[in-house]
Design a protein that fits this description.
about 30% strand, nine-stranded mixed sheet, seven-stranded parallel sheet, about 15% helix, alpha/beta, UDP N-Acetylglucosamine Acyltransferase, domain 1, 3 helices
Length: about 250
């Protein structure tokens, strides 16, 4: 590889596939820290219980996983084959439901995930921290196949509804320099704030730096590229406000 490039061999240090180095990278990836004892303990508990079927398995996971998490309230219900990375940075409230096949990842340094009381996470949801803080407030429903990407902070206000395959994307790639691979040019990032009592329809995408105000509705397949005021109805790509909701609330 030529040293004349803006990026050089040092950029590719992650491609070193030595066995021990690869092992410790994996330990860091799943536990969030270089700890063999945590790796063994976390792996043993998750491996033994993650695939245990029936309601009994879901109840057991909601109890025994408590020792792995940063905090966990009462009566949580975790279906089978849910994956957790760095669960010590994940905080669950009470009566949280997490559907089968979901993946909640707080391994990158600086990541913290809070899922508060009475939140329903449907099947196949991915919640991935990447140095940001993700907060899902009380009584939020996250639909099947949705993706929350925390390169910056994400906050979803209480009572909000995310339909299936909604994506909240706090960062995108810089691609200005054609002589450098896009993956090495950094990201544009920004916080996402979803207000209280917001309904995002199926396959809505919300881009970085966006705030959607309280009580708003965004129609299916919309791409939100600018802020949506409170009590608005928006639709389209890019999403635009098509009318206001009547409300007696302040």
């Amino acid at each position: 590889m030529s040293s004349d490039n803006n990026w050089d061999e040092e950029t590719y240090h992650f491609l070193d596939h030595g066995l021990m180095k690869s092992f410790w990278k994996y330990v860091m990836r799943v536990t969030g820290e270089r700890s063999f004892s945590r790796f063994l303990r976390q792996g043993l508990i998750l491996t033994l219980l993650s695939g245990f079927p029936t309601v009994i398995g879901s109840v057991l996971r909601g109890s025994i996983y408590r020792s792995l998490f940063g905090s966990m309230g009462s009566n949580c219900f975790i279906e089978k084959n849910v994956r957790f990375y760095a669960p010590q940075r994940i905080h669950l409230g009470s009566r949280v439901f997490i559907g089968e096949g979901s993946f909640i990842d707080a391994a990158p340094p600086g990541s913290v995930i809070y899922i508060n009381d009475n939140v329903h996470i449907s099947q196949g949801v991915v919640i991935r921290g990447l140095s940001g803080t993700i907060v899902i407030d009380e009584m939020v429903n996250v639909g099947t196949g949705s993706f929350i990407y925390g390169a910056a902070d994400v906050r979803i206000g209480r009572y909000s509804l995310l339909a299936n395959n909604v994506e909240l994307i706090t960062g995108d790639h810089v691609f200005k320099d054609p002589s450098t691979p896009i993956r090495f040019q950094g990201r544009n990032i920004g916080n996402i704030v979803i207000g209280e009592d917001v309904w995002l329809g199926a396959r809505v995408t919300v881009l970085h730096g966006i705030t959607i105000g309280k009580g708003s509705v965004v129609g299916a397949n919309a791409v939100v590229t600018q802020d949506i005021p409170s009590y608005s109805v928006a639709a389209g790509n890019p999403a635009t406000v098509i009318r206001k909701r009547e409300s007696k609330r302040s």
